[in-house]
């Protein structure tokens, strides 16, 4: 068991009609002017934005709006938001949406309060020293960004998808009304559920012995995600299932499931390059890569995969042949992904990787052969290329 610090300062307001409290929450922070940041038109069509504007006005909070945040959020939108916030003297950012909107809000928050190019916080040249306060009304469960310290942005110049990790960007509050996710397309729900599952799995597969209590929490979250994902594929307006999924999204990525262990994150790093190059949905990219990563690293610790198969997927352990149980677990999880409509190969996304693209993906993922990824098994550039080929 490793030493660890656990820090989760975000206030959670959970349940039906909680979005009506947004004005009060921002007012309690002493802020006076907000940027309301959102993605497409769904928040407008549903009437959610009008409710938000009414709540802000009730508490004397002026606001300006910025829409158009896209999946795999881009740097150009961040620059646009920074300019607006500075010109309008905004002192709070309200993200209305899912991970893409929240990550963009964090990046804008860093850019407004720090000098220089905000991209330098994402390419590792500098660290932010401050951030505008941020709050979230969650409409898509999956990324966990509402309670994490991470923000991921794609620079269109080179399609580089990079992360900035800082506690300064953690949301002051998150409003979670599961009813706001009722109208999500099945594909978005499936991608979100896959991402939630992977956030716990990236922490679960560690090269070091884990805390028993952390393992049990993680295994329970993963079982809950799998069970309720299946319900939502048939009954998208099932409140209980939506609520379970929304809460597991936050718990899986607020570091609770990583206490006392070293996380892996190799599949995420591999996927970031894939979605940076092809602009695919993050959850789908993770599903397309995970089985190949798992088979590639399996022999490092087959017993850990056997525990996952047994405790999460209810597969009987074969202690005389742990690799057999492990492989059965990998196949079973892939079958689950398929049941959600997720890919289990890159080719399922109608992408035929060429050798030159595999080289470019591995080159970018390894930072031009300057870094390794992974903890369960440390992966070098050549390992990355092999996994991309296996996943093709």
From TrEMBL:
This is Uncharacterized protein. It comes from Pectinatus cerevisiiphilus. CDD domains: BDH (cd08187). One of its GO terms (cellular component) is cytosol. Residues 9-178 form the Alcohol dehydrogenase iron-type/glycerol dehydrogenase GldA domain. Pfam families: ADH_Fe_C, Fe-ADH. The keyword ATP-binding does not apply. The keyword Transit peptide does not apply.
